[in-house]
Amino acid sequence: MRTSLLKKYYDARLPWYTIYPAVSHFSAAIGATACEKWLGHLAPDEPVSLYFHVPFCQSICTYCGFPRTMTRRDAPILNFLAVLREEIRLVAELAPEGLFVNDVHFGGGTPTLMKPAEFTDLMELLRRQFAFGKAATVAIEIDPRTFTVEMADALTTAGVNRASVGVQTFDRTVQRAINRVQSEKQIAAAVEILRHRGIANINFDLMFGLPNQTVQSCVGSAARAVAMRPGRLAVFGYAHVPLWAKNQRLIDEAALPDVAARAEQAAAMADTLVAAGYRKIGLDHFALPDDQLALAQEAGRLRRNSLGYSADTCKTLIGLGPSAIGRLGEGYVQNEIATGSYSRKIRAGHLATSKGHRLSNEDRMRAEIIERLMCDLEADVPRICARHGFDPIAFLDSAERLLMLAEDEIVDVKEGVIRVRDEHRFIIRGVAAVLDQYLERPLC
C-alpha cells in the first residue's frame, strides 16, 4: 500500500465500527428508565446474547484501553459478584419471562480471576433466570498467567465451550515493554488444559504496532501461535490514546512503529496466517475453514458487534457489569464505567445505565452499510437503502467523499455496490468513516 494513501486515510483515532454510532456519540438522555422500557419491549420468542464485563486484573498491561481495576485480593471481586447477581435478577424481572439465551461471553479484565465455585454459581443463576439451548455458546477470556486446572474444571462444569486466550505477543522484549510477561510454556499449558477438558474452540488475541515490535517479531509471534493451532485469531493494531488511557503514558512513544511500519507488520502477520491455512475475516480476524467465523463469512451472515467479529446472529445483546454495552431493539445502552457508580445504582435497585443512543431509521441504514463493509469489504447500497426506505441515489450523491476514495482506487463503486479492494482492507475503518454522519472531522 502506498505510504501517501496510509497518511491520507489511516487514523488510529477513528472508531473501530464494532457498533454504529460509536460510544462517543451516546447521550446521558438515554438512561435507566429508557433501558427498562426497552428490555420490556423485547420479543419473548427471539434469542438474545449476554455480555459480562468483569473489570479486574492482577496487573495492568500498559497497552490496555479497556476499563479495569487492579486487585490481588478476593474481597473486591466478591463484592462485585454480589452486585452482578443483583443486576442479573433485575434484568430478568424487566425482560419477558423465559428469555432464550443463545450466546454468553465473559470479558474483562480477567474473568477467570473469580474462584471456580464463584463462576459455577454464577452460571447456575443464569440458567435459573434465563432459558438456555443445548447449542448455546458460552465463551470466556483467559489470562494464561493466572489460569488454573481448578478453573478449567469449573469452566467444563459450567458448560463453557469457547475460550479466548490473551497472547498479544511472544516476543519477550515487547512483553516487558507492555508489562505482560508470559512464557510460551504458560500459553501452551493453558491451551492443553482446555483441550483436555473438551473446550476445543480456542481463540488467540495477537497485536501489532506495540513498542519495540518489528516485522520479524510479529511474524515470529504469528508462527508460534499457528503451531498451537487455535481455531481463530484476532490480530489487533495497538491504538495509542494516552490522553484517555492513562496507563499508556508509561509506553515510550519513541519505540512505537509508524503507520507504514504498522501496515507492514499487519500484512506480514496476515501472510503468515493465510499461508498456514487460515482465512481472512474482515479487518483483523483469521479463522480455520471449519471455524464458525469462517462458515458465517462464507454464508454471508458474519456480524460485527461490540466484541468484534461474530457468528452470533442475535439482534439483542444485553450488557452486564460496569461499562458493558447493550444493543436492544430501540438502540444502544451503556452501564456506568466506574465500578463504584455501577454498584451504587444496582444496590439501590436500579439499572446502572449511564448513557445510550436511540437509533433512527437513517442510523440503522448507515449501520448496516458500515457493518457489511467491515465484514464483507462490500455493501450493496441500493438493496440496503430499499430495506430501510431510503433513496439510494440520493444517499450515494450525498456521500461525496466516496468519489475521492474511488479516485484513489481504495474502493470501486458500480451500480451502487461499494467494494473495498482487498489490498486496502487495513484502512477499511477510513472507508466506513466517510459514511459516518456523526464524525466531526472529515477524513479526506
Written description of the protein model:
Helix 4 runs parallel beside helix 5 (149-158), helix 8 packs parallel to helix 9 and helix 12 (361-376) runs antiparallel to helix 13 (381-388). The chain has 444 residues and is α/β, with parallel strands linked by helices. The chain has helices at residues 3-9, 32-40, 75-94, 116-129, 149-158, 172-177, 184-196, 215-228, 259-275, 292-299, 339-347, 361-376, 381-388, 392-398, 401-407, 428-433, and strands at 48-54, 56-57, 69-70, 100-108, 131-142, 162-168, 201-208, 232-237, 279-281, 285-287, 303-305, 308-310, 316-320, 325-327, 331-335, 353-358, 378-380, 411-414, 417-420. It has a nine-stranded mixed beta sheet with strand order 9-10-8-7-6-5-4-1-13, with helices on both faces. The radius of gyration is 21 Å and the shape is globular. A hairpin with a 3-residue loop joins strand 14 (325-327) and strand 15 (331-335). The chain has 16 helices and 19 strands.
Strand % is 15-25%
Write down the overall mean pLDDT.
93
Placed side by side, the strands forming the largest sheet appear as 9-10-8-7-6-5-4-1-13
Give the end-to-end Cα distance, rounded to a whole number of Å.
17 Å
Proportion of residues in helical segments? 25-40%
Q: What class, by secondary structure content?
A: alpha/beta
User: Largest sheet at a glance?
Assistant: 9 strands, mixed
Task: Supply the number of helical segments.
Answer: 16
Radius of gyration: 21 Å
Q: Could you say which overall geometry the principal axes of the C-alpha atoms support?
A: globular
Low-confidence region ranges: none
